[in-house]
């Protein structure tokens, strides 16, 4: 079934909601963004991939004051797959309490589940050098 304009809007909002929930400390609501068995790949930062929405929430709590004060997402591009999944790429900008910033690329797999669209796999890639390095 082809992606509708409504699907595209819902998926774009879903990707944006992650930052709102994290910045508000509403980590118990991450199931509104991710599947319960999500894989959240942060190996580019030297960490193990997180498995499950509860592990993502716990990692955020454990990071505590080191969390960014602002998660901003932009440049969302959606690519519908033949199997009904959607591959999404977006840019993330994190603003830290000391005013420093960092840039990442989010690579998401988005699936339709009984509660609507959810991210089932997210890879976070740090942007460290210009022009793709």
TrEMBL record:
Keywords, ordered alphabetically: Dioxygenase, Oxidoreductase
Top-rank taxon: Bacteria
Entry coiled-coil feature ranges: none
Pfam families: SnoaL_4
Keyword field contains Oxidoreductase: yes
InterPro entries: NTF2-like_dom_sf, SnoaL-like
Protein name: 3-phenylpropionate/cinnamic acid dioxygenase small subunit
Residues of the SnoaL-like domain: 5-123
GO molecular function, one term: dioxygenase activity
Record carries keyword Acetylation: no
Taxonomic lineage: Bacteria, Bacillati, Actinomycetota, Actinomycetes, Streptosporangiales
